[in-house]
Structures are given as C-alpha cells and as structure tokens.
Design a protein that fits this description.
- The complex is a heterodimer of chains A (about 375) and B (about 270).
- Chain A is about 45% helix and about 25% strand.
- In chain A, strands 2-1-5-4-3 form a 5-stranded antiparallel beta sheet. In chain A, strands 7-9-10-12-11 form a 5-stranded mixed beta sheet.
- Chain A starts with 10 loop residues before the first helix and ends with a strand.
- Chain A is elongated and about 115 Å long.
- In chain A, a hairpin with a 2-residue loop joins β9 and β10.
- With about 270 residues, chain B is of the alpha/beta class.
- In chain B, about 35% of the residues lie in helices and about 15% in strands.
- Chain B is built from 9 helices and 7 strands.
- In chain B, α2 crosses α3 and α4 runs antiparallel to α6.
- Chain B is globular, with a radius of gyration of 18 Å.
- The chains are: A alpha+beta (about 375), B alpha/beta (about 270).
- At the A-B interface, α4, β3, β4 and α5 of A face α4 of B.
Chain lengths: ~375, ~270
C-alpha cells in the first residue's frame, strides 16, 4: 500500500468536523468544549453550550434520570461507559436519537469526561421494530399458553365425558352375567345400553367432525334446499328436548319458502347444535326462539334464549375450540364444549358467518347465522 | 439458596454496632465502595444486593412479591436478623431509604437509626406536593430504560475502554455493575418510581438522618424538607453536590455528615 502523503488536515479541523459529536465536560456535566459536528446536531453554537449548558440539560427528562441513576454512577465506578442510548433535545425541541460513549480522564490534573455521540436514527428504528416484535411475541406466547391450557382442560373434560357412560354399561353387564334376565330386566338393559352408546357415539362423532373440519377434510354435498322446511324439521326434532327442559319454544318463520343451495345434513346439524346449546343453558321456565328472515340475498337465522348469557369478556372466544366458558361448564351437565366450534366451521364452509350477542351474564344470548342465497 | 447467596451479602469490619448499606435503583452494592470502608474500623458492615440487582439471585425475583417495596423491606429484615450484631444503623440510598423505612416500621426493634441518602417517599407531583416528576416523565424514563437494556441485556458490550484513572478497579467489577435482566429492571423502575409512602413517614420513630444533595433531579430539596417535616426524629443535612449519588461523587462530605449524625445518636 502506498504511504499516505499529501496535505494533512490539522488536528483541530479533524476534531471539529469529525464524523461524530465530540464533547468535553466536567464531571458535573458542564460542557467545556464541543465540536462543530455536535453543535450542528443539537442546533446550538459552541458559545451557547460551553460553560452555559450541562450534558444532562440536552436530555429529555427520562434520560436525565437515567443519567443520574446509571450513567454517572457507571462513570464513577468504571471510569468509562459505552453505548448509552438516549435522545438529545435540539434547540428547536426535536429529538435526535444518539449512542454515547464516555470516558473520564485527567487533563492537566483536572478530571474531565470525554463524550462521543453517534446519531442512531436507523438503529433507533430497528430497535423500535424489535421492541414491537418482542411485545407481539409475548402476546403470542401468552395466547399459545392459554390455548395449551384449554387443550389440557379439554382432554380432562373428554376423559370425564367418555367415562360417564361406562358405569351404567358396566352395571348392565354385571347384571346380565348373573344369569338370564327376565323380559322386563332385558328391556331395561337394552334401553340403558342404547342410551349410553348413543351418547358416546355423539361425542365421538362430534370429535371426529371437528378434527375433520380443522384439517379441511369435510366436503359439503350441496343441493337445492328449502330453508323454511329444514328449520321446521329441526324445530320438531328439538321440541321434545325443549319440553322436557321446561322451556317455552317458539318459531318465527317467514311464510314464503326460501331456496338455498346448501348441504342439508350439515345445515340441520348447525341448527341442532344451536338449539341444543340454547336448551342446555336456559334454566327451566325460560324461552327459546328460532327465527329466520330474508333481506335481499342474505338469509338470517336467529336462535335467541333467555338463559345464563355470556360475560362480555368471554364473547370473543365462544366459537373457539375447547372454549366452554367457566359459567357454562358449571351450569351444563357436561358436554365437550365443541358444539359451537363445529357450528362455526360448518357455517364458514357454507360461506356464511355466525355471531353471538349477549347483554351479559344472566341476560340470555342470541346466535345469528347469515347465509347467502346462491343464484 | 441461602440468604447470603440470594443477596450476595458481604460482611466486613468489626465493632459493637452494625451498619447495613442498601443500594438504590439502577446499581448494586458497588455503589458503597468509597463510603463503606470509612466505617469498617469501628463497625461491622453488611453490604448486599436487592433481589433483581447486581449479583443477587435473579431467579429469586418474584414479580408478585416485588410488586411493592414491602417485599424488599421483608428481605432487609431477614438479612438484619441473620447477619447483624448489636444495634443496627440502616443506610439506604434512594429507593432503599424508603425500603429501610418500611422495614423499620414493620420491625422497629431491629433498628437503632436510619440514614436516608437522597430519599424520596413519592416521585410524582401531587397537588401541593412536589415530587419532581409528572407521570409522563416516568413513562419517558421507562422508555429510556427499555432501549438501553435492550442492548445491555445480551452483550452489554460496554466495550470498556478501560478505566484509565482507576487501575485499582477489579476487572470483574466493570461488566456486572448496573447490568440486570431488562424485565426486572423495568419492573423495579415501575415499582420504585410509582411508589408513594408519604403516609408512612410519621410512623418512622427511629432517629433519622436525611442526607440530601443540593442539586438532585431525583430528590429535589423540597422533598427533603417535606420528609423532615413528617419524620418525627429527623435531621436534614444538605451536601453541596450535583447528582443523586453523594456517596460516589462526594464521599468525604457524606462520611462527615453520617459521622456527625451518629455522634448525636451515641451509636
């Protein structure tokens, strides 16, 4: 490499126009010298700084506290401190993010702080990005932990629900193994086995349905369907449950037929789930309404109940998997809490939406399904 | 983990009474390196780190326990019970002055006197009370802390340019001082700067020295006067010093003021 010859700038010129702000200050912060670069960054002349302002006077208040609690003590203890990140307040009030290195040294017997400032606007932006990303990460982690906890709870509920039918089934087996039963006993046994096996089948069906929906494995078999007839049929299926629960069940259906293209089985399943849900969470003496209407191309189906309602905080999670809310769990006689997740999955497969409103705990709820009439 | 390790308790000196030194927000027991030795020929001295600071056990930082300063005050009383001998003089800097006060109120039998260095019972202005800060100022501090600890936490490369004027400074000191977990630093900052213990001041019955700097952003003179008017047996001494750490920047004046106070308590 060729030796560097030619004109050399003076040390003073190098100092004054250095690519960083250079400041000399007394340990109490009073500025003794500042280079031109620093002066231009902060918008003060050297005269306005030297002997008139302290380094900490150029910091916003949060950074001034930091100066007292960290920066100064570090200088006292270590004699130097690096990569402090603060804002400088310019004469016009604007803030300039900077990195500061400081070293304390004796100059002719007097201790002075040598400070080097580097403008860090870009780094500041990256940092803000990073902080935002970290905040987001914390949120996601919390959400993940919450989902994990709910999954654990779900597994416990599942085990409980699957175990429940086993005791009556075992009783029947025990009885049958004692010898041939008479006709009445046999009928009783068959009824029990039938009821319990149906219950378990429903649980297992729901489970496999929900996992097929989440994996995108359900395909709709869409055909032209007349909605009012489907609603009437669903209501008739649900009526015995409503009556045995002591509920006043009413229908508000349009007189004119509504033609849709939909998967009739799935549509019935959606309605059954919503009606079962309403029956389950509405105390005896309450009422459930199934209503529908059509506005333009949009069909709206409503299931309204006067039941236990949903607290505002729980509303956003009602359709999530494993989201059976605490109040609901205490009230219901079991269930996996996946019925509404199933509803949402099936409605969305139809290109529709489902929503819930509730005035709050004890004030009933209303589930609204909207579907488009395909032409 | 033992109390000794949990708080990095360091015992030195000997004498009929014990002085316990507690560091303030931001740093650790190293803060006392220019002050504590001045007392070690006549007193037993106990230095320690608050949990979450310095070389304390960071894993022991229970965010719920340290949500208020009372958690730290309980720690102080445990340390005093375990390690002190004879009458106890508690020297607390900044937030630790408040921690010492709370410890003293909870267990007055443990303490002979309190020495508060740059104390403030409440940092935020409130009606006629001048704490020195607005709520927005404190938020600004938390932001500054966040952007600094972001870099410091991982490497804190204070690519130390050496401490040319302090060759005696041990190497191991230079990198640990002031460094801690960023979440803990933020939590402790919040706990410290949002604390308000003005109502307890008149319950502090031990003789108390309020040692203040003439120009301290964190504890303005009005705060010292307020505390002096509320703490029954208090003495207010103002040291001519800029900053919040007279034990670092004006150690001999601080020692004189403390000695003068101790002479009046006869301990």
């Amino acid at each position: 490499m060729a030796p560097a010859h030619g004109p050399q700038p003076s040390a003073d010129a190098l100092y004054d126009n250095a690519a960083c702000g250079l400041v000399l200050a007394r340990p109490d912060g009073v500025i003794v010298r500042a280079n031109a670069t620093f002066c231009s960054w902060v918008g003060y002349s050297a005269d306005a700084l030297v002997g008139r302002r302290r380094v900490q006077d150029l910091l916003p208040i949060g950074a001034r506290v930091f100066h007292q609690t960290h920066w100064q003590p570090l200088l006292h203890i270590q004699g130097s401190v690096s990569e402090i990140k603060v804002d400088l307040v310019r004469s016009d009030g604007r803030h300039v993010p900077v990195l500061v290195n400081t070293v304390r040294r004796a100059h002719d017997g007097e201790m002075l702080d040598e400070l080097a400032f580097f403008v860090a606007t870009d780094r500041h932006k990256y940092e803000q990005e990073l902080l935002r990303a970290r905040g987001k990460l914390h949120e996601l982690n919390a959400a993940l932990a919450d989902a994990d906890r709910r999954k654990d709870e779900f597994l416990a509920t599942l085990a409980h629900e699957l175990r429940n039918p086993l005791a009556p089934i075992r009783n029947v087996l025990h009885l049958l193994s004692a010898g041939p039963p008479d006709a009445a006993r046999l009928e009783w046994s068959v009824q029990i086995l039938d009821r319990q096996v149906r219950h378990m089948t429903r649980l297992v069906d729901d489970l496999s349905e929900i996992s097929r929906i989440t994996q995108g494995k359900i395909e709709l078999r869409k055909t032209p369907v007349e909605l009012v007839a489907v609603l009437t049929m669903a209501a008739e299926t649900a009526r015995p449950t409503m009556e045995s629960a002591g509920l006043d069940f009413t229908l508000q259906l349009p007189a004119a037929p509504i033609q849709l293209v939909a998967d009739e089985t799935r549509l019935s399943q959606i309605l059954q789930n919503l009606l079962t849900n309403a029956a389950k969470y509405t105390p005896q003496g309450g009422c459930v309404v199934l209503a529908a209407d059509r506005t333009g191309d949009v069909v709206t189906i409503r299931v309204r109940d006067s039941g236990i309602g949903i607290a505002a905080a729980d509303l956003p999670r009602v359709f999530d998997m494993f989201a059976q809310v605490t109040a609901a769990r205490a009230h219901s006689d079991g269930g996996l809490g996946i019925g509404l997740a199933l509803v949402r999955g099936l409605v969305e497969l139809h290109g529709g939406t489902v929503a819930v409103t509730s005035e709050g705990t004890g004030k009933g709820s209303e589930f609204t399904v909207t579907l488009r009439v395909e032409r | 983990m033992s109390l000794q390790l949990r708080h990095n308790v360091q015992i030195a000196g000997s004498g009929p009474a014990t002085i316990v030194f507690a560091h303030g927000f931001g740093c650790d027991q190293t803060m006392w390196r220019l002050l504590a030795p001045a007392f070690q020929n006549r007193y037993r001295t106990i230095l320690f780190d608050l949990v979450g600071s310095g070389r304390s056990d960071l894993g022991a930082y229970d965010f719920a326990r340290y949500e208020t300063l009372h958690g730290h005050a309980e720690d102080v009383n445990a340390i005093v019970r375990e390690f002190a001998d004879g009458p106890v003089i508690f020297v607390g800097h900044s937030v630790s002055a408040t921690i010492g006060m709370l410890a003293n109120i909870a267990a007055p039998e443990l303490f002979e006197s309190q020495i508060m260095v740059g104390p403030s019972p409440c940092y935020i202005n409130d009606g006629d009370y001048i704490g020195g800060f607005s709520r927005e100022d404190i938020d600004g501090l938390l932001t500054t802390l966040e952007s600094n600890y972001l870099g410091w936490a991982s490497t804190m490369a204070p690519a130390i340019m050496g401490a040319p004027e302090q060759p005696e400074l041990a190497d191991e000191l230079t990198n640990s001082f002031c460094r801690t977990d960023p979440d803990i630093a933020k939590h402790f900052a919040r706990t410290t700067f949002l604390s308000d213990h003005r109502a307890e001041l008149d319950q502090l019955e031990a003789p108390t020295l309020i040692l203040q700097c003439s120009d301290d952003l964190i504890a303005p003179q009005a705060v010292g006067r307020f505390m002096h008017s509320r703490i029954p047996k208090s003495t207010l001494t103002i040291i001519d010093n800029v900053g919040h750490c007279p034990h670092l920047s004006a150690p001999s004046q601080s020692v004189s003021a403390i000695e003068a106070f101790l002479a009046t308590t006869g301990c």
